[in-house]
Amino acid sequence: MGRPVVLQGVGRLGSAILEGWLATGAVDPADLIILTPSEKPIAEAARAKGARINPPLEALANARAFVIGVKPAKWLEAAQAVLPHLAADAVIVSVMAGVRGETISDGYSGRPVVRVMPTTGVAQARGVATLWSSDAEALKVGQTLFEPIAETVLLDDEGLMHAATAVSGCGPAYFFAFTRALAEAGEAEGLSPEAAARLARATLRSAAAGVEGDEALNALIDRVASPGGVTEAGLIALNENGALDRSVESAVKAAVAKSTELSG
């Protein structure tokens, strides 16, 4: 048994991270401690594989990493109960948007912090995770925990976490919203609601498969949109006078502004 990894909070994102760890073996369940105020199916699945759920807090004394999975508004309050018991050299892993690393480190008595902004695709080991830390060893711990379940991008400037959150952390919702609009447009053209939804969802999955690898995005578009063809006509209408580009830019700017506001 190695030094344990502690996950505090098993909400939507915490559950996704835990699911990814269990699926990939990124963290041995025997080395997992889960702190949760309520029963969660994924936590019970982890318990069945050897994880400890809400053990005496003295069990945190040898933790190598402490993952904050609670809501940003509650992290400092949640820290108070565990702080007296937490290993002095434990790395604090924050998956909270908008809370600066220095603030978190101060709340955890100066312990090193790595900030991670993952998507819920980590549950299927197909997530994206942006990482930043001012401490090289803390960054390595973050990479160890998230590289098996996500494509990781390292930042050298914490200020860029706002942009990374707006693009990647929020991005899945943008794609889902577009997919919903695509289904509704198909329905307006006569498709049944069921057929339109299935086509739109399957198209999203197909498009996602197409971005595997490093081929330029313009090349991927050109592969589908023949000059003078049906797809090109749709793309021209979609981005008439730069409408699509402006809408996406506005969405990212709004998300950056909100993330900055939350950081104080």
UniProtKB/TrEMBL annotation:
Locations listed in the record: Cytoplasm
Pathway where this protein functions: Amino-acid biosynthesis; L-proline biosynthesis; L-proline from L-glutamate 5-semialdehyde: step 1/1
Record-linked Gene3D superfamilies: NAD(P)-binding Rossmann-like Domain, ProC C-terminal domain-like
Extent of the signal sequence: none
Keyword line: Amino-acid biosynthesis, Cytoplasm, NADP, Oxidoreductase, Proline biosynthesis
Principal location listed in the UniProt entry: cytoplasm
Presence of keyword Oxidoreductase: yes
Reaction it catalyzes: L-proline + NADP(+) = (S)-1-pyrroline-5-carboxylate + NADPH + 2 H(+); L-proline + NAD(+) = (S)-1-pyrroline-5-carboxylate + NADH + 2 H(+)
Pyrroline-5-carboxylate reductase catalytic N-terminal domain sequence ranges: 7-98
The protein's enzyme class: oxidoreductase
Enzyme Commission numbers on file: 1.5.1.2
Domain Pyrroline-5-carboxylate reductase dimerisation, chain residue ranges per copy: 158-262
SUPFAM superfamilies registered for this protein in UniProt: 6-phosphogluconate dehydrogenase C-terminal domain-like, NAD(P)-binding Rossmann-fold domains
InterPro entries membership: 6-PGluconate_DH-like_C_sf, NAD(P)-bd_dom_sf, P5C_Rdtase_cat_N, P5CR-like_CS, P5CR_dimer, Pyrroline-COOH_reductase
Stretches assigned to coiled coil: none
Domain of life of the native organism: Bacteria
Family: Belongs to the pyrroline-5-carboxylate reductase family.
Annotated function: Catalyzes the reduction of 1-pyrroline-5-carboxylate (PCA) to L-proline.
Identification of the protein by name: Pyrroline-5-carboxylate reductase
